[in-house]
Amino acid sequence: MSIRSQIRPAAVDIIRRLNQNHYEAYIVGGAVRDLLLGRTPKDFDIATEATPEQVRAVFGRGRCHIIGRRFKLAHVFYGRDTYYEVSTFRRQPNADERSDRDDDDGVLIWNDNEYGTIEEDAQRRDFTVNALYLDVIGNRGIIDFTGGLKDIDQRIVRTIGQAETRFTEDPVRMLRGLKLVGMHQMTLAPETEAAIRRLSGRIRQASVARLFDELLKIFQTDCAAAILQTCRQYGLLSALWPGLASIWNKSPGRIALAMLRARDRAVQKGDYSTSRALALATPCLPYVMNMLRSHESDTFPLWDSALNKQCGHAIRSFYDGFVLPHVLTARIRAMILMVPPLAEGVQIDYLTQQPDYKYGRELLRLLVEACRWDPALVQNLPEPGQSSSGGAGRLPRKRRRRPRRPRRTETESATEATAPDDLL
Ligand code: ATP
Ligand code: MG
Q1: Stated pTM of the model
Q2: Residues of the domain holding 292
Q3: Co-location of 139 and 5 in the same domain
Q4: Which residues of 272-309 are buried (b: 16+ CB within 10 A; e: fewer)?
Q5: Which residues have any ligand 1 atom within 6 Å of their CB?
Q6: pLDDT tens digits for 367-406?
């Protein structure tokens, strides 16, 4: 199937309308890269010579919203909820232009809004494989100013321009580069690799909000485990995510990675929950369980205030360095604290009534798969939405005896993580 034929018709339609109004416009960035790599793009971004105001004039105020103040973008809507991002060709500001800015620190890049030519637009992008433009209407095919086609062919991630400069301008690019390596089994160009190894500590100079966004984006892929492994391999993990790096070679770390692999497999099959709290709870569960293992209490976990407090503290320490909103911490805690009683088969009637039951059950399923325990441990629990044998909403009473250690299945392999006895 040709690449053009895989572009969503609405994106082609937007480009056609812009062309009819005498503006150049192309599909750009991740979509072109993914199609050339034989993957299905998750979105189709459009780059054009039209300014956001000109794009709005073409599509009308009803269908086109301009977002951003300094760095303006047009969102062109198809239906109520679907929109395509249309960005104007821009160029990186030069040193003189930067020095006039009061938010300039001489190094880190700011959101520039200087319009430019298509070639300048290519040069300001991060990697050669991300700077390809696909002409879907005319006959220019794929336009390549930076050698991206060759790099796609050889599966090489290479910065545009000098790697040290580009990573210093914006340290998030290091993470973006390693994400490409982990997702597409690519390799880093030597200069790009050397710069990441040298500058990895600087990732913390990026805004915590952007880093948290990138982390959430990693969890939206079906390669989270491979991406984090790549970050570890190239020395970025300890600066990026000290909580995960600190347990990497220990039992909770191995289980966390195996749970993420199980989650990636589920995401690959499609139809997986997009809950951010569930995604964040997944690698966190073994860490928290390990930290709380000495906690002795007769109170049901969800109602044990000391346990709740410690659990919240453990979650925050695992995600130290990211900005985890309180509401997400509370939801992650609710899910995690549900896992031990679900595994023990305690107060199941009560738990099935909880709003986060399906996520608590899913977390347990990932743990069972990661540790190759007996799947019946989860299969015997009621499906979400299906009420169990009466007793709805009953308050939990005293915790019952500790459970038998789950039995492993015969397929257990020595290389997979196995949970420590006291994890649950
Ligand atoms: P994904 O599949 O994750 O969306 P993507 O490459 O499309 O991958 P986006 O964040 O959607 O990533 O960015 C779109 C394009 O914008 C990129 O392909 C790249 O050309 C450019 N870009 C994004 N972030 C940066 C950055 N920090 N520095 C330079 N260019 C960037
Ligand atoms: Mg994209």
Answers
A1: 0.87
A2: 251-379
A3: yes
A4: beebbbbbbbbbbbbbbbbbbeeeeeeebbbebeebbe
A5: 29-30, 42, 45, 125-126, 130-131, 170, 172-173, 217
A6: 999 999 999 999 999 998 775 554 444 444 444 444 444 4
